[in-house]
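Quick question, first post here. What does this chain look like in 3D?
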Amino acid sequence: MNPRNKLRETVVIVLSISVLLIALSLKDSSFSIGDFKFKKVDLLSDIRTRSVFIEAPVTSPILTDSIIRTDRRFYQQKKLNPDAIKDFGNDSLPALACFFESLFQTQQKKKKCRIAYFGDSMIEGDLVTQDLRTSLQDSFGGVGVGFMPVTSIVAGFRQTIFHAFSGNWQTYSLLDQNSPGHVLGITGYDFIPMYSPGKDSVDTGTGSWVRYSAVRRKRLNSFSNVRLFYGKTEGGGNYVHAAGRTLPLNGSQPVNTLELLKSSPSQTVQADFQCSSLVNVFGFSMEGDSGLYLDNFSFRGNSGMPMTRIPQSVLSGLNKQLNYGLVILHYGVNVVSHQVTDFSWYEKGMTEVVLHIKAAMPNASILIISTGDKSFYRDGAYTTDPSVPLVIEAQKRVAEKTGSAFWNLYEAMGGYNSMVKWVQGDTVLANKDYTHPNFRGAKKIADLLYQQLMSDYRAFLKRREYEGAAAKLKVQDQELKN
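> Answer (accepted):
Ran it through. Tokens below.
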């Protein structure tokens, strides 16, 4: 018995469903059942004109806040710069004074100035930081990418260094709740090389390894000084083989350092570990003898609040070796949610983070960078998530409470619905997730930040010169009186 051909029925079913979906797309078809909400059907969303977006209504508590304003004339009338870095320090010690003094010493006396730039996926793969580093090193000198983790999920994406490693590293992070035997480093990770308990021998062929190779870019085409940072070790039998030398890992401090290269330029550095006990490896640093160094400490999915899990002893120990002049905290995108209207919990958590860092790095300035614009999909179009201004306000209050500096990235991007314009503009500056900048957008953010920092630095130099001249006159006046 031959089955009847049902091709006609199939065509009728497909056409009927298509007509139904198109009809639902032309009207608001969203509805809710209990706590579950069905989204509006929009069969034609992928073929609509990409430049069309909606100006969603903004609730009055947000509208009255200057953060949400997009009319630049508002700032001009009040003689305000919406892109400026706000300084919540005091007259005797502005928030960025320590950083600017470090820049001055670097510029005048060929010393080192270092920046720790903490962030989430917005700076992953050295985005933003690579361009900011280039601009600062062009102005103040310096060679090298700075601090590097041992392993990285975006090693192949990063353009400022070639990074490879063996697959037998154990890694723990600040998002791991229960991980015995690990101590987190400044990257938020603990890297443990493979070890064989009781084996006290050097065998560079079976242990864990990591390799860094220079790229053909200005200031990044060779390594001059390379240092290894690791934690306290117990017993002997732990070694690292690098640059033709085998060096013991005998550390008694929370943070220990080992020079693998010193004023000896090289294109590639590989470190092979052979350990008989657990060793906490924190990372490596590639740098020169003087100039500006900017370390990228990106951590995907991090709100910033778990940073208090990095022990103060580790932060303090690394700071003694690296001497940070500025710590930048660039978070918020993982906190934004249109379903949340109260971010007091985030304000409290990030205040604790800043105080945690200040206790470990008392001579470092703190700069909090707000979340940028982030869009969400509603009623057939993308628009600014209504919680973005609320998160920014919480971040600004953290800066006020802790005497830190604050830069409103949301305003610098253009304010309300700027992410839509960054994605859909003639020059595409962001990815189609309507959250993350692309390489062009990251460079624009870096350029805007660099311009603001240098504007404030020039103002600092003028004040420094004025205060120096005033002090000199005071001394001369006292001498005349005597």
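The chain has two domains: 60-142+290-482, 148-289.
Residues 148-289 form a domain with the Jelly Rolls fold (CATH 2.60.120.1360).
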